[in-house]
């Protein structure tokens, strides 16, 4: 038996090229992996929950100083991370 790799689109490419209304259900798929730093135990989580955990860290590390006020509005007034957790 032999294997031959066939070049194709990745799942990420396919999902990002799909319509916007198909991206929301994709957030409920268990493609995230959460790892405990204390115990080393890992578990599958939905992309939505993974984004909720990583969004504040990523945003503060990558936004420009003039965008901090907008990020604070999203966090404090709208609770964007909590919205993703729910």
What's the structural blueprint in terms of helices and strands?
Elements: H1 11-16, H2 23-26, E1 32-35, E2 42-45, H3 47-62, H4 68-77, H5 80-85
Q: Could you please describe the fold and organization of this structure?
A:
- The structure is a single chain.
- This protein has 86 residues and is mainly α.
- The chain has one domain.
- 49% of the residues lie in helices and 9% in strands.
- A two-stranded antiparallel ribbon has the order 1-2.
- A hairpin with a 6-residue loop joins β1 and β2.
Strand share of the residues? 5-15%
- Class from secondary-structure proportions: mainly alpha
What is the averaged pLDDT score?
Answer: 87
Helix content bin = 40-55%
Calculate the terminal CA-CA distance, rounded to whole Å: 47 Å
* Total DSSP E strands: 2
**Most strands sheet:** 2 strands, antiparallel
The stretches of 5 or more residues where confidence is low (pLDDT under 50) are none
Strand order of the largest sheet: 1-2
CA gyration radius, whole angstroms: 17 Å
Number of helices: 5
Number of domains: 1
- The helix/strand order is HHEEHHH
Shape: extended
């Amino acid at each position: 038996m032999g294997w031959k790799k066939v070049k194709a689109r990745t799942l990420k490419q396919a999902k990002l090229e799909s319509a916007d209304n198909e991206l929301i259900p994709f957030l409920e798929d268990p493609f995230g992996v959460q790892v405990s730093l204390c115990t080393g135990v890992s578990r599958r989580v939905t992309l939505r929950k993974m984004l909720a955990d990583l969004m504040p860290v990523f945003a503060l590390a990558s936004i420009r100083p003039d965008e901090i006020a907008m990020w604070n509005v999203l966090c404090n007034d709208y609770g964007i991370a909590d919205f993703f957790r729910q």
